[in-house]
Each structure stands twice: as C-alpha cells, then as structure tokens.
Amino acid sequence: MAVVQSTYAAGMSAAIAGLIANMEQANVVTRQVQDTGGIGFGKAVFQGTADGEITETASALFVGVTVKDVTVDNATADTYALTANAGVLESGVIWVTAGDAVTAGAAVSVAADGNFEADASGNQTIDAIFLDSGSDGDLVRIRVR
C-alpha cells in the first residue's frame, strides 16, 4: 500500500483565504456563481447579471467576500464552480490575500484583477477596512461592514 502522507505539521494553518476570522457577528448569504471559470475562496464579488448571481467582475454593487467551504467538490480546488451556491460574507471579519502592501486601519479597495489593496487609485473602494498590515501575498483580515 502506497504512503499517502508521511509528514505532518505541528498544527493547523492559522489562516486560509476565505476563512471567517473569528466568532463575532457575521452575515453570510448564498448566491449563485455566474462566472464560467468559477470564483475562488476569499474573493470580492459583485452583483451578477441576474438576481441572486455574483461575479468577480467589479461593478457598482459590491456584494461581499466568498467564504471557504470545505464541502465543495470540484475539479478546481478552493473554487466555487459555475452555477454553484456560494457562501458570501456581507458583514464580518474574513481572511483574504493582500494584493500589495497594506496597513491596518486602511480602507480596502479591489483592483481590476480582484486583489485586495489599500491604494484606491484606479481601484474600486469597498465598505471594508484592513485589520492587519502585510505585504503582497500575505494573508490579512478585513472587516466588511
């Protein structure tokens, strides 16, 4: 019988993109994925074409951030597939990946490529603030209001 896993970490990862960060009040709703390529966990999502749909394509109406779902079973790991029901955090604290250097307390903006950034120039500012400072690629918490 082949060995599936032979090494183990001493503990679980402290954070994963799309993971709700704490036990304070959060509001998570279900929306259907409109994007053909699916939508990853911990991504900013916006109102889709039809009622109840979401897209990563930035539009005037920010809906929330996709929540990690360990029960998702598809060919692309950590992604809600086209037409899947996705958990979307409308308010609360969630882990995301910083798209550039960010500072705790700064307003959150979403770049055209979907990255969470502190620079509002050319980006869409959303109703959220960074709770942690970090560099490009770091996992940081944001508070969505």
Secondary structure tally: strands = 11
Helix vs. strand class = mainly beta
Instruction: Tell me the number of structural domains.
Output: 1
CATH topology: Virus Head Decoration Protein, Chain: A
Share in β-strands: 35-45%
Describe the protein's architecture and organization.
By secondary structure, the chain is mostly beta strands. It has a single domain (27-144), classed as Virus Head Decoration Protein, Chain: A (Beta Barrel), CATH 2.40.300. The protein has no helices and eleven strands. The protein has strands at 27-33, 39-40, 44-47, 53-55, 62-66, 79-80, 85-97, 107-110, 116-117, 124-130, 139-144. A five-stranded mixed β-barrel has the order 1-4-3-5-7. A two-stranded antiparallel ribbon has the order 2-6. A hairpin with a 5-residue loop joins β3 (44-47) and β4 (53-55). The protein is globular. The relative contact order is 0.21.
Short key terms for the protein model shown above:
single chain, mainly beta, Virus Head Decoration Protein, Chain: A, five-stranded mixed β-barrel, 38% strand
Give the topology, please.
Blueprint: E1 27-33, E2 39-40, E3 44-47, E4 53-55, E5 62-66, E6 79-80, E7 85-97, E8 107-110, E9 116-117, E10 124-130, E11 139-144
Parallel strand pairs: 1-4
Antiparallel strand pairs: 1-7, 2-6, 3-4, 3-5, 5-7, 7-11, 8-9, 8-10, 10-11
